[in-house]
Amino acid sequence: MQTATDIKDMVRSKYGEIAAQSKEQNAASCCGAGECSTVDYTIFSEDYTKLKGYVADADLALGCGVPTEFAQIREGNVVVDLGSGAGNDAFVARAIAGETGKVIGVDMTPQMIDKARENADALGFNNVEFRLGDIENMPIAANRADVVISNCVLNLVPDKHRAFEEMYRILKPGGHFSVSDVVLKGELPDGLRNDAEMYAGCVSGAIQMDDYLRLLQEVGFQNITVQKQRRIELPDDILGNYLTHDEITTMRSGDTGILSITVYGEKPTEQCAPGSGCC
User: What is the pTM of this model?
Assistant: First the structure.
């Protein structure tokens, strides 16, 4: 059984490889780095090319949503991007937060941090920075961010409860998050589960959607809302290796599946301190 350290080392190694590839190479491989399907398209990612602030060199086609679309970022906001990769979402967030805003990207893969910093330097951005760090123990002070965003990364974190606690800690009172992620609905067929967990690295740590939302509530977030939801359809060349034709038909017609969701939540404005009487 893999430990949390094993999982992080595996993810760090794989995304280090991905950092050296182009968007086209990543899109043509279901695992991002490797040859595990002949499907020549990206299942999880969405089109960023028409968004203000889009930087082609920062787009590695690794996301599963567009969290900035729903994040309600305002000019002057401090935005933290968790699992910032080559900087794709961070640069879009900067275009919204403006010159008076600040964007901090956090990623645990050194090659991604290097790539993001190179992109920021090439663009002359002085209000975007990228920090090497772990989402379960972020290198960011408490009550720092107005908005937290993330794109298809939190599902890869072994201890999601701890990651959500860290999101809560770094947000200012009254701040909010909007994160896109991959979750499960229902139990995947036994024959598919292991392969699906490798698919684009995006389902490796995915949990049930109800559990995901419950964990966010447990750490203290309020007004939790699923802003967008779409079903991820795995291609037949993957499913056919593990399921019969009838099993594929049943899965496609039922409620069981892999979902991309974008979730919003708020940190309460009034915090409960020991001895204050509010608890």
Answer: 0.84
Q: CATH number of the domain at 4-266, out of 3.40.50.460, 3.40.50.620, 2.40.50.140, 3.40.50.150? A: 3.40.50.150
Which of 40, 66, 71, 42 has its CA nearest to residue 54? 66
Helix (H, G, I), strand (E, B) or coil at 84: coil
Confidence band of 14 (pLDDT split at 50, 70, 90): low
**pLDDT at position 12:** 63
Of 57, 50, 111, 65, the residue nearest 87 (C-alpha): 57
Angle in degrees, CA 18, 200, 161, rounded to 5: 100
Give the model confidence (pLDDT) of 79-111 as tens digits. 999 999 999 999 999 999 999 999 999 999 999
pLDDT of residue 200: 45
- Give residue limits of the domains in the chain: 4-266
Query: How far is the C-alpha of 61 from the C-alpha of 43, rounded, in Å?
Result: 10
Inter-residue long-range contacts of 10-16, CB under 8 Å, 24+ positions, other chains counted: 11/108, 11/109, 11/156, 11/201, 11/204, 12/108, 12/109, 14/201, 15/85, 15/109, 15/111, 15/112, 15/201, 16/109, 16/110, 16/111, 16/112
- In this structure, are residues 30 and 61 in contact, taking their beta carbons and an 8 Å threshold? no
* Contact in structure between 16 and 111 (CB atoms under 8 Å): yes
Helix, coil or strand: residue 224: strand
- Percent of the chain beyond pLDDT 70? 75
pLDDT of residue 13: 58
Crossing angle between the packed helical segments 88-97 and 110-123, to the nearest 10 degrees: 40
